[in-house]
Amino acid sequence: MSTKLSVHTKPEDEELAKKRLELAEIESQLADRELYVVTFRTEVTAFERRYLKIVGARYAELDEINAEIAERLAQRRADKNVQDSAKQARARANESRSAIDAHAADVAPRSLPSQELKSLYREVAKRIHPDLSSDPEDRKKRQRLMAEANEAYGMGDIARLKRILEEYESSPEAVPGEGVGAELVRVIRKITQARRRLLEIEQEIQKLTASDLAKLKVKTEESAKRGRDLLVEMAEQVDRQIAAARTQVSRMST
Amino acid sequence: MKKDDEPTRSNSLIPTSGQALARRSDALVVRGIRDLETTERAYAEAELERGIECEGAEKFADAAIHYRNAAELGHAWAQFRLAEMYQGGKGIEQNLHEAQVWFGRIREAAERGESEAQWSLGLMFSDGLGAGQDYAEAAEWWRRAAEQGDAAAAASLAHSYHNGRGVMEDHDEEERWLLEAAAKGNPLACHELGMMHMGLDSTNPAELSPELQRLFANDAAAARRAVCRSRHERDLVKACMWFKLGAMKTGVERGQGLCKMWCELILPKFRELTASQIDEAERLAREWKAAVDNAATRSNATGETI
C-alpha cells in the first residue's frame, strides 16, 4: 500500500500528528524519569557501599569475635543451648562476612554520575527505550540494550553508553513502518507502554525512598549539614562493642 | 537462566548489580539503624535530663541548648519544653517563630502516629501552647497515645477523667488508665494511685493525722488533691508500695519528686505504719518493678525479631 500524498487533511492524519506529538512529549518525560530513577538507584548503591565499608565491615568483625566466644563456650560445655547458640553465632558471622565480601568484589563506580554521563544516558533512554517500540523483536533487542545501558550507567562507563547508542542506530528496526492506520496503532501502543512504564518508575521511586538505606542516607546527609558524620559515629559505636567483646575473649583465654 | 526470566517481567530493565547485592546486606543496614536509634535515644534522654537540671537551676540559656540537642533528634518532650521556653521567653529571648517551628514538628510527628509526640500535642492543647486551648482535643490525643502503650499519656488521660476535662468525669476510667500507666512504672500514675489508698476524707479534716494537717496547712492545693484522690479504704502498705514504685523510676519523669517526698518525708511520720509494713511495701514495689522491667525487655526482644 502506498501513502496518498493528496489527502493531508484526513482525520487519521490529524490524529496521527496529534498522537506523535503526545508520544514525543512522553518520550522525553520517560527519558527524564529513567534517568532520575537510575541515578537514585546508583546513589543509594554508592551510599550502601560507603556504609558497608565504614560500618558494615565492623559488624562483620564483631560477629566474628562473638562467634569465637560462643564456640569457646561450646567447647567447654556440652549443653544443647550452648551448642546451638555457637552454631547460630557462626552462621551469623558467615552471613555478615559474605555480605561484605560480595560488595568488596563488586566493581563499582568510584564517583557519582557526571553531567556527560547523565545526558548520554538520557539520550539512550529516549532512543532505545523498549517501551517506545511496538515490534516484539525490536522490543526484545531494546530491552537487552537498555539493561546494558543501566549497567554502564551504574559503572560510569561513558564509552559503553556511546557504543550502545551507535549499535542501535544502525539497526534496521529503527526504520518507521508504513501506512497511516498501522502507524497510528503503533504510536498509540507506544504511548500506552510508556505510560505503564512511567507508573512503574514512580512505584520504584516510592519503594526506594521508603527503604531503610535511603532513609539512612537522607539522615546522614541532614546530619552532615549540622557538622556530624553519622557513619563515623555509627562505626565508633560498633567499635565500642568490639572492644567489649575483645575484653571478653581475653578474659576467657586466661 | 537470566534470559529466560527476562520476558516474564513487564519490563526487563535488569536491576543493576548493586541492587541484587543490596538484599544480602539488608541485615547489616537494619542493625546499624537500630543501634543508631538506641544511641541517639539515650543521648536525647540524657540531654533532656541535663536541660531540666539547668532549668531548675535557672540556667535557662544552657537549658535551651540541651533541650535543642534532644529536640533535634526528635525527642517530643524536649521539643515541647524548648518551644515553651521560646514562646514565653523564659530566661531566653522570646522567639515566637522558633516556638512555632518546634510545636509544628510535634504536631507532624503526632499525626504520623508517634505516641510520644501525641502526648506532647495533648499537652499543647491542654496548656493552650502552640494551639488553642481545647481539653477535648487534648484528651483525644492522649487517648491515641495511651492506646499505643504510652504511659505518660495514660497518666494524663487519667487526669482528664479525674476532673472531667474534655471527657465525662469518671473515676473508674481514671483508675483504669492509672493502672495502665503504673504497669509501665510511670511515677505520676504511681503517685495518684498512692494517694487513692491514703483514705483521706474531705468531709472530716479532723481525721487527718497531725503530720498531714501541718503539711496541708502550708499547701492547700496539695491537701485538696490528696483528699479528692482518695477513693479506697486507707491501706498504707498499698499506698507506700505505689510511692516507692514511683520513686524507683530512673530518668526524668513527672511525679518522681512527689513520690520521693511521700516516701522520705511524709510516710515515715505515720505512726500507724510499722517498719515491717514498710519492708512489705518495699518488697511488693520491687516485685512490681521486676515485672515492669521484664515486660520492657520482652517488648524490646519482640521488636528485634520484626
Helix content class of chain B: over 70%
Number of domains of chain A: 1
Query: What are the segments of chain A in which pLDDT stays under 50 over at least 5 consecutive residues?
Result: none
Report the count of strand segments of chain B.
0
Given the structure, what is the number of helices of chain A? 8
Sheet of most strands of chain A? none
Q: What is the percentage of strand-forming residues of chain B?
A: under 5%
Tag the structure with descriptive keywords.
A: 254 residues, mainly alpha, 8 helices, B: 306 residues, Serine Threonine Protein Phosphatase 5, Tetratricopeptide repeat, 72% helix, disordered C terminus
In brief, what are we looking at here?
The complex is a heterodimer of chains A (254) and B (306). Chain A has 254 residues and is an all-alpha fold. Chain A has helices spanning 11-76, 80-105, 115-128, 136-155, 158-169, 180-210, 212-225, 230-253.
List the helices and strands and how they pair.
The complex is a heterodimer of chains A (254) and B (306).
Chain A: H1 11-76, H2 80-105, H3 115-128, H4 136-155, H5 158-169, H6 180-210, H7 212-225, H8 230-253
Chain B: H1 2-5, H2 17-56, H3 60-72, H4 76-88, H5 96-111, H6 115-127, H7 135-147, H8 151-163, H9 171-182, H10 187-196, H11 210-218, H12 220-229, H13 236-248, H14 256-266, H15 275-305
